[in-house]
Structure formats: structure tokens, C-alpha cells
Design brief:
By secondary structure, the protein is of the alpha+beta class. The protein folds into two domains: 226 residues, P-loop containing nucleotide triphosphate hydrolases (Rossmann fold, 3-Layer(aba) Sandwich), CATH 3.40.50; 87 residues, RNA polymerase II/Efflux pump adaptor protein, barrel-sandwich hybrid domain (OB fold (Dihydrolipoamide Acetyltransferase, E2P)). It is 25% helix and 33% strand. β15 and β16 form a beta hairpin. The chain starts with a strand and ends in a 5-residue tail after the last strand. The structure holds adenosine-5'-triphosphate and magnesium ion (MG). The site of magnesium ion (MG) has 3 residues, from α1.
Length: 327
């Protein structure tokens, strides 16, 4: 295994930020840490980078024990949310500086700077200072600076979250493209599920200092392990199993509601009491066998107006069993 983390724990003033995290990352993989604010994403990334000391951890990288290796010797490139460029240096100097610190041969540096600027489409901006660039351009410089020394791993902590929506989408496609061309092992922290789904080979879903599930985007979407993951990636209707009390989930696109139709054998019928259009989905509350059932279905459904008699079908194949943490 390329990068292997075992039993990482970290507390700040007695409060657990990481409660025993274990994870393996393969060479060339693009992994996202996804989770709500405060779940420990940055702390985990900083421990990998060597910028934070864990209380307990086993970290191995390319067969080597990293636990006691300081950050500057790990050869990991890092980009933070705030651009953190040197304000008094030009774009070119910002990139060159890290190479000088790493004792690159003087004659190799200008060529490397030029090719890194080309890589992030900023060849014409070399002589500018950071304050003369847009946020997206500054983040590209930060990327170029991180990649210049040929790091073994690229670590990105919410690199796009300070940018506005359009720039953010463009740059995330660019990061993905860069990563697949360079095939550099990359870990990106984000709390944006769309961002994670777009770029990641695998997503690590975190909550309260723990890993809830690790998987490819499609696996997490189709087979979420529990309620937290189901709700964090996309929308999920929660239903109780008819036979027991087990919790199950069904995505809006799999719920079948047909107004006014003859109910075939496998369907139940109900009457709509409330219906709200929310953009890509409609949320419908029905009374079925005297009980309220609220379901989100895909698209705009003017046919599901209050009072309408409808047939409900929840295909068993589309139901996902969810661990809701209850015994
Ligand atoms: N230097 C610190 N001192 C004290 N507590 C800290 C420190 N760094 C992190 N924490 C706490 O550890 C927990 C995890 O923080 P962390 O920054 O890793 O979360 P995060 O998932 O990156 O959140 P966000 O999405 O808001 O950036 C939080 O409860 C936070 O308050
Ligand atoms: Mg963070």
C-alpha cells in the first residue's frame, strides 16, 4: 500500500478531533475527505502532511514509517484554502522560491517555473504580484508552486471554497484534469458533495472524527452504509421496513407515484395532503393506511396535488438497508 494510516487519534484540549482513523490510499489515486464542518478533515490532512502531531498514529508511505519524519522531509505538496502566496514576490518568484529552498540546481529553476506556469495556464502572468490576480488565478499559482518540486503526494485543503461558483467549477475540472495527466496521488478536503463526486476516485466520508464509509462515488450513492452517508450524498427517503423496524432508504428517482391509476396488486394507495416543488424534486406528503408518509420524488409533479388519490410503489430492489445506529 502506498499511503497507509492506522489508528490516528488526536484530541485538542480533551476534545477528540480524530477518534481512530485508518485508511489506505493507492499510488495515483484521487481521494476526497468529505464531511461537515468540524469533523476532522483538516486535522487528518495536517497529520498526513506532518504539520500536526497526532496523539497516536501509524503512518507508512511507500514502505517507510513516516511517523517521526518532519513535514519538510515528506515531499508532499500542499495547497490551502487561503491562497497563502508570498505577497511581495511575483508569480514566478513564488514558484521558484520553493525550489530554491529544496536546493534545486540554480540553472534548472527558470525552466521548471516556465513549465509550471504553462501547466496552470498562467504563462502570461509571471511578472505580476498576487494582488494583481483574481482568486482563481492565485489558487492556480498556489497549485503550480505546490507541484513544482515534484511532490510525491498533493494535499489540498478546500482549495476552491473561497472562490465563487463559476470559477470554482472551472478550477475543479482543471484540478481533476491535471491530476489525471500527472497521475499524482492526491488528497483533497472538501465539504461539498458535488465537488467530491466530480473529482474523486474514492471518497472518505467523515463525521465527528470518524470514517463513516469509504468508496467510489457510485458505491456511496447506491449503497450508503448508514443514514449519515445517505443524507450527505444526494437525497434519500427514509422508510421503515414493513416487517421489522429496520431502517431503509430509497432515492427520489426510484419512488413511483402515479396519480389516479388503478392500483395493481403490489401497490398501496394513498391521498396527497401536501405537495411542494423544490426545484429538481417534489416533496409529497401522503396519507397511506391512516399514516403520514413523506417522500421526495424526482421532477415537477403537478399531478400530485393535495386531495389526489395516488398509487405508491417502492421497488424492493431499490431499497437500501441503512444502519441507523440503533441496536
Ligand atoms: N488547533 C486547534 N486547537 C483546538 N481545537 C482544534 C484545533 N484544530 C482543530 N480543532 C478542533 O478539532 C475539530 C476538528 O477540526 P478540523 O479543523 O479538523 O475540522 P474540519 O473538518 O476541517 O472542519 P471545516 O470544514 O470547518 O474546516 C474541531 O472540533 C475543531 O474545533
Ligand atoms: Mg477544515
Amino acid at each position: 500500500m502506498y499511503l497507509s494510516l492506522r489508528g490516528i487519534t488526536k484530541s485538542f484540549d480533551g476534545v477528540k478531533a480524530l477518534a481512530g482513523v485508518s485508511l489506505d490510499i493507492e499510488e495515483g489515486e484521487f481521494v476526497c475527505f468529505l464531511g461537515p464542518s468540524g469533523c476532522g478533515k483538516t486535522t487528518l490532512l495536517r497529520i498526513i502532511a506532518g504539520l500536526e502531531t497526532p496523539d497516536a498514529a501509524e503512518i507508512r508511505f511507500a514502505g517507510r514509517d513516516l511517523t517521526d519524519i518532519p513535514a519538510r522531509e515528506r515531499n508532499f505538496g500542499i495547497v490551502f484554502q487561503s491562497y497563502s502566496l508570498f505577497p511581495n514576490m511575483t508569480v514566478a518568484r513564488n514558484i521558484a522560491y520553493g525550489l530554491e529552498c529544496r536546493k534545486w540546481r540554480r540553472e534548472d529553476i527558470p525552466g521548471r517555473v516556465i513549465s509550471m506556469l504553462a501547466l496552470v495556464n498562467l504563462s502570461d502572468q509571471a511578472a505580476k504580484f498576487p494582488h494583481q490576480l483574481s482568486g482563481g488565478q492565485q489558487q492556480r499559482v498556489a497549485l503550480a508552486r505546490a507541484l513544482a518540486p515534484r511532490p510525491a503526494v498533493l494535499l489540498l485543503d478546500e482549495p476552491l471554497s473561497a472562490l465563487d461558483a463559476k470559477v470554482r467549477e472551472d478550477l475543479r475540472a482543471e484540478i481533476k484534469d491535471l491530476q489525471s495527466r500527472l497521475r499524482i496521488t492526491t488528497i483533497m478536503v472538501t465539504h461539498d458533495q458535488h465537488e467530491a463526486m466530480e473529482v474523486a476516485d474514492r471518497i472518505v466520508v467523515m463525521d465527528r472524527g470518524r470514517i463513516e464509509q469509504i468508496g467510489r462515488p457510485v458505491e456511496l450513492y447506491e449503497r450508503p452504509a448508514n443514514r449519515f452517508v445517505a443524507g450527505f450524498l444526494g437525497r434519500m427517503n427514509l422508510v421503515r421496513d414493513v416487517h421489522g423496524h429496520a431502517l431503509a432508504g430509497i432515492r427520489p428517482e426510484h419512488v413511483e407515484l402515479c396519480a389516479g391509476s388503478e392500483a395493481p396488486h403490489e401497490r398501496r394507495t394513498g391521498r396527497v395532503s401536501r405537495s411542494v416543488f423544490l426545484g429538481s424534486i417534489t416533496r409529497v406528503t401522503l396519507s397511506v393506511d391512516g399514516q403520514d408518509l413523506t417522500l421526495e420524488v424526482q421532477g415537477r409533479r403537478d399531478d400530485l396535488a393535495p386531495g389526489a388519490e395516488i398509487a405508491v410503489r417502492i421497488p424492493a430492489r431499490a431499497l437500501v438497508r441503512l444502519d441507523d445506529g440503533l441496536p
